[in-house]
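ok so dumb question maybe but i'm new to this and my supervisor (M.) told me to 'just get the structure for Peptidase S54 rhomboid domain-containing protein' and walked off. so i did the thing. is this what she meant?? sequence i used:
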Amino acid sequence: ALDERRAAAPPIAGAVRVSCPGPSTERLAASSGVGANSSGGFFARKTIFGGVRRNPNKKRVSSGGGRANQHVEQIVSRPTTTLLLLLNVCLAFCYWNRHVCPSSVAKIYSKIVVEGEIWRSFTGATAHFEPMHIGFNMMSLYGLGMELEEGYGSIPFLFYNVALVVLTTAVMMGMTYARMKHTGNARLAEVSTVGYSGVLFAWMVVTSLERPRTCPVPFLPDMCFDTYSVFGGAIKFNASPIVQLFVAQFIMPRVSFMGHLAGIVCGFALHWSLVPLELACPHVLIPAALLAHMHFVRGMVLEPASGVVAWTGGNDTAPELRALQPLEEEEEDEEKVGGGGAVSNKRRAGSEREGRFAQCLMLMSKALIVATVASPFLLDPLTSAVLSQLVTSVFFHVGAQSYRAVCRNRNDAYRGADAERELNREKARGGFLWRGAVLSLVLLLVADAMTAAAWTVAGTSVAAGRILLVDLPPALVMMALRMALNLAALVLAVAVLHDLGEVGSGIFIHVFGPVLRWGKAVGDGIAAASSSKPLYVPFEGRGFALGGGNRGGGLLESASSQNREDESGHAL
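this is what came out, is it supposed to look like this??
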């Protein structure tokens, strides 16, 4: 009987992938026969019931149970949908209670593209300022979440929602740019857009393409559209989302046509697999989108600020000290006159510390590059674990080069206003790069921690994507080493931000404030521990008798006498 039950049990996949489901996991599931079915759509590896996978191991509420218990079970079993509902509703209440202006959090082309306020992609998507707006969106989110989350899984569904926020914003900004270029209407750059409906339209496309027939208008039940497929079902099309777009525009003219259209485009691209699913993971997509914006839109990645000379190599052990060479004669003159020696020594000591710190950054950059190169030999090269490490290494390497350029030219600020202005521009550029590095490192550490936890709970081997299979203990050791390296890189990145004075403000401080405070505290502790001078010597190295008898005062009197000795010039 035991053998019969084992034979009837579903096969278990022989490997666990690193990150959110992608084409590699679909190939793995197809090869192992897990969840295969004959429908062959976007949910081909899942058991289909109206486009939704039903988990056979989950307990169902009996038909005799109350409806309230059923709703509670649905909410608890779909934590991502519940989280998104609470997030949008709570933010709407906070904005209403604090009288927040919509333009301060909305998606605006001039703010996002020109001024680089990428965070508006998220604040604009989760902002609602009218009861009807949030009511319609939350009802749609509840229906779509109840249908889709169980099929995807809670964590992948959350990842895809975050990714769709970025993708819909990028497509919308591209459409706005094309429209401004075609019509010449510059006022489009100042149009404010808020609401989660762009992401919801993308999910509407996914659900409609998984159904054979869809009726998009509730008050026109006979107006339905069939789903057509070509290339063996690889590409499907249904006109119902487009009809919903025009119906919504006709009923409520104030809705964002460009925002909804961007959601439809992203929904079709997601279902047609035009966007690789491994790239849709937040710890890959968000840093990559930020890096692409900084390079292609703002030109801040490869080129330093004009007039700032970046160090390009050489045999010097501390190239930052070369900035002091033109000033050596002036410093010698100051020392001859008197009073300038202490200043010059202090400046030289500060430059030496900057040089050592810059070298430490370059060593960490090389270590991250080594970790990136080594990752494909242990993991699938196309998984998000490798891609996110690659993006993080690029941020850190370019940021380290920018910091070396700042150290090389920092003393040029004493020579004129132009040099100081150019140096401030380079520091601002470095601030953008290092804030991006902090963002990428935090997301990567969270994803690696989730991956290591999944491996530990699963207790199975990890697929390498090629021929090599790595057992669980070596994989966990490798992941622990990589997390330790990225954690050290995060501490250095926070230290650079504080040194440049480019920690930032606004939403960056609100989101990453604890990380910045923790990183600064750790960095200061390491610096204090490595310093050759003690920070504090009790009683200046002397001992004092407590009590004092008739003298009175005891310790205080001895301390005051010591202070008088110091003032008289006999201090140690």
